[in-house]
């Protein structure tokens, strides 16, 4: 299976993809509370960048599992490309928010304040 096929079929790409999913799950479980408790300093920025990468990766593997289970085979390939596009746009959006804006954590906190 080529590298592109492994990315497109992240749910069935083998042990490495499953391990990535499990590791992102564990990392997110630790980083989310850290993000909530951290301020606007370097720890907060590093946490935001880590979350900005881990959330799309974790979601990409998970959504591919949903696609495999519920999407008809005739449109599964197109659906996987769509999921990859959404993952890419999400990753870019989070990175822009984290590097050029107030950051993911600050933005979510602001949403809860209003």
The total count of strands amounts to 0
Q: Kindly state the mean pLDDT as a whole number?
A: 91
Helix-strand sequence: HHHHH
Q: Distance N terminus to C terminus?
A: 48 Å
Q: Calculate Rg over CA atoms.
A: 16 Å
> Regarding quaternary structure, how should these chains be classified?
single chain
Classify the secondary structure makeup into a structural class.
mainly alpha
Q: Do you know the CATH topology?
A: 3 helical TM bundles of succinate and fumarate reductases
Helical fraction: over 70%
* Assigned CATH class: Mainly Alpha
- Report the uncertain regions: none
Shape: elongated
CATH homologous superfamily annotation: Fumarate reductase/succinate dehydrogenase, transmembrane subunit
Instruction: Bin the strand percentage.
Output: under 5%
The CATH architecture assignment turns out to be Up-down Bundle
Main beta-sheet strand count, sense and barrel state = none
Number of helices: 5
Total individual domains: 1
Summary keywords:
mitochondrion, ubiquinone binding, transmembrane helix, mainly alpha, 5 helices, SQR/QFR_C/D, heme binding, elongated, 3 helical TM bundles of succinate and fumarate reductases, 114 residues
């Amino acid at each position: 299976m080529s590298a592109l096929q492994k990315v497109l079929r992240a749910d069935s790409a083998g042990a490495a993809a499953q391990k990535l999913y499990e590791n992102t799950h564990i990392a997110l479980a630790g980083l989310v509370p850290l993000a909530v408790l951290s301020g606007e300093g370097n720890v907060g920025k590093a946490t935001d960048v880590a979350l900005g990468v881990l959330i799309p990766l974790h979601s990409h593997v998970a959504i591919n599992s949903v696609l495999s289970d519920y999407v008809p085979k005739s449109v599964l390939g197109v659906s996987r490309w769509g999921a990859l596009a959404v993952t890419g746009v999400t990753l870019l959006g989070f990175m822009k928010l984290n590097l050029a804006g107030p950051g993911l954590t600050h933005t979510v906190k602001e949403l809860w304040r209003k």
